[in-house]
Design a protein that fits this description.
The protein is built from 17 helices and 8 strands. With about 400 residues, the chain is mainly alpha-helical. α4 runs antiparallel to α5 and α10 packs antiparallel against α12. The longest helix is centred in the middle third of the chain and has 22 residues.
């Protein structure tokens, strides 16, 4: 069979089928032998593989190891940062975390590699490791991303050290306790001051925002977001079957990619709604017969976890005379109101979907009222009751 009988991109080499493709940033085509004879079925399989490779290249997610795991060139690359991050951070996370989280990891790794370039991790001297760390920090656009990038590298490199049998982790303790030790943190205390009094909405501001919202449908949704404390995706994925007022059961969430999955904790939770949230939820259920509780202005289920466009949100805040804060702050605002009103930390954690109170104390600690020291054992009547119970 001659080369002219074969589809474009497929040729013969020493009696076996070979495919040719050009990965991103490569001037020359890569040619890889498939090691199979040119039968009709094999030619079809080769064409399907080539089309799959071209699709991955166009999407920016081509990985040679996915198609040629034993390719000799991979042995040269296995100690490079790009390969380590792909295999030991992204690929190792598949099946262990949600698909949406894997996508977030991919979006974290790509700009990191663009900023710092590719490095042979096995050849880094202690001095070069320090220089590398500083470069990661200096090229990060924010404190948060600096810490996230260092964390990703730490996870990937430590897994690679075990699998590649390197003599030691070239970074040693450089990436330990990233948030506390990172040079980036000393440039600003954004993380620790993330939720101050000015970083959440007051109840009065929330009322003004609702009042400034034009449509009744959206007024109800914004009110529900402020007074339920749900994540946007959790609210927009809520179904009629989840509502049994005054309770709702949060079983699922709508991601920014349009998929439905379990909540962030992975567990369903039943919560008791405040009267303000119950009232608008009851009104909303009377306006339509759809399975999904919250609908767009066109009466359709939301496709993504945005309750409204950024432009519409900014316009609403301006009309309300309220300074800009992200849409997600409705949840943080509700949590701060609960704590300032004296709700127990454990109750707030359960309502928000946190497994324990440590996150509540870390994130909302400034809103927790100082407890008045009072010994129960100083009350004689309670001591007598305790004695009897024992």
């Amino acid at each position: 069979m001659s080369d002219f009988d074969l589809p474009k991109g497929i040729t013969m080499h020493r009696g076996k089928l070979r495919i040719a493709f050009r990965p991103p940033n490569e001037k020359q085509q890569w040619k890889r032998s498939l090691g199979i004879p040119p039968t009709k079925a094999n030619i079809k399989a080769a064409e399907q593989m080539l089309n799959s490779i071209r699709r991955d290249i166009s999407l920016g997610q081509f990985n040679l190891a996915d198609y040629f795991p034993n390719d000799p060139s991979l042995k040269k690359d296995e100690k490079m940062l790009s390969h380590i991050l792909q295999k030991h951070f992204i690929d190792a996370s598949v099946g262990r975390v949600k698909d949406s989280t894997v996508r977030v990891y991919k979006h974290l790794v790509r700009p990191l590699l663009e900023a710092v370039g590719d490095w042979d991790i096995s050849k880094l001297s202690p001095k070069e490791a320090k220089q590398f760390r500083v470069r990661v920090i200096d090229t990060a656009p924010s404190v948060y991303l600096a810490n996230r990038r260092l964390w990703a590298i730490k996870i990937a490199v430590r897994r690679a050290v075990i699998e590649l049998d390197l003599e030691a982790d070239p970074f040693g303790p450089l990436l330990d306790n990233v948030e506390r030790k990172s040079k980036a943190v000393t440039r600003g205390e954004e993380d620790e001051a993330a939720l101050s009094e000015s970083s959440v909405f007051t109840i009065e501001e929330a009322e003004r925002i609702v009042e400034a919202t034009k449509s009744e449908q959206r007024k109800r949704l914004i009110t529900f977001m402020f007074w339920s404390g749900l994540r946007p995706g959790e609210a927009l994925a809520l179904r009629r079957e989840d509502v049994c007022l005054p309770y709702i059961t949060v079983k699922r969430t709508l991601t920014k990619y349009g998929t439905i999955q379990t909540p962030k904790s992975g567990l369903a939770r039943k919560i008791y709604l405040p009267s303000s949230a119950r009232s608008v939820l009851e009104q909303q259920l009377l306006t339509h017969d759809s399975e999904r509780v919250w609908l767009t202005e066109r009466g359709l289920p939301f496709k993504k976890s945005d309750i409204m466009s950024m432009k519409a949100w900014r316009r609403t805040l301006e009309a309300a005379g309220v300074g800009y804060k992200k849409r997600y702050i409705t949840r943080h605002s509700f949590a701060s109101w609960m704590l300032k009103a004296g709700e127990p930390e454990a109750s707030v954690a359960a309502h928000l979907g946190h497994s324990n109170v440590s996150m509540i104390r870390k994130t909302y600690g400034k809103f927790i009222p100082d407890a008045k020291p009072e010994w129960t054992l100083d009350d004689p009547t309670k001591v007598e009751k305790l004695k009897k119970s024992m």
